[in-house]
Design brief:
The chain is an alpha+beta fold. The protein has helices at 37-54, 138-146; strands at 18-23, 66-77, 86-96, 100-109, 114-127. The longest helix has 18 residues, at 37-54.
Length: 148
């Protein structure tokens, strides 16, 4: 998106600031001979949890006042994955609001040399006791910007 000064503020299309390698386990396979679809969502979760750690949400528990919840997740499957393989789970911030943000996911297969899935996760910051949305702190917003 051009801001009128000739400067582009959209994220670089292929920039993924956080990449996590994941070894595909034999037990990830299902009766059809490929990795079960639910594993893809788990690989998204592994990267999402790393984001939570970076923005200071790693010590969440029953005594926490507020924090992130997963409001929506989407996965577009592009190719089945087989064992053995190593998947790179990539993640970046796509959209940041006052009380929510969207994370984009990409899974790449080392064995296949291509993208095997794309997805998004919508995260909402809530007060765990009341269930109401709360604003993201300045620190969290700054950390999310670093992952854009």
């Amino acid at each position: 998106m051009n801001n009128g000064n000739g400067q582009n503020h959209d994220p670089v299309p292929d920039y993924w600031p956080l990449k996590i390698p994941i070894v595909v386990a034999w037990g990830d396979m299902d009766a059809l001979g490929h990795v079960n679809n639910t594993r893809f969502l788990r690989w998204f979760e592994d990267a999402r949890f790393e984001v939570f750690q970076r923005i200071g949400s790693r010590e969440l528990g029953p005594d926490s006042c507020s924090g992130p919840i997963l409001a929506r997740i989407e996965c577009i499957f592009r190719s089945p994955v087989l064992h053995p393989d190593t998947i790179t789970s990539m993640i970046r911030t796509a959209d940041i609001g006052t009380d929510r943000y969207t994370l984009e996911h990409r899974l790449e297969s080392q064995q296949q040399g291509k993208v095997v899935a794309l997805g998004t996760s919508r995260i909402v910051q809530i007060n765990y006791q009341s269930g109401q949305k709360v604003a993201l702190s300045r620190d969290v917003l700054a950390q999310l910007e670093q992952l854009r």
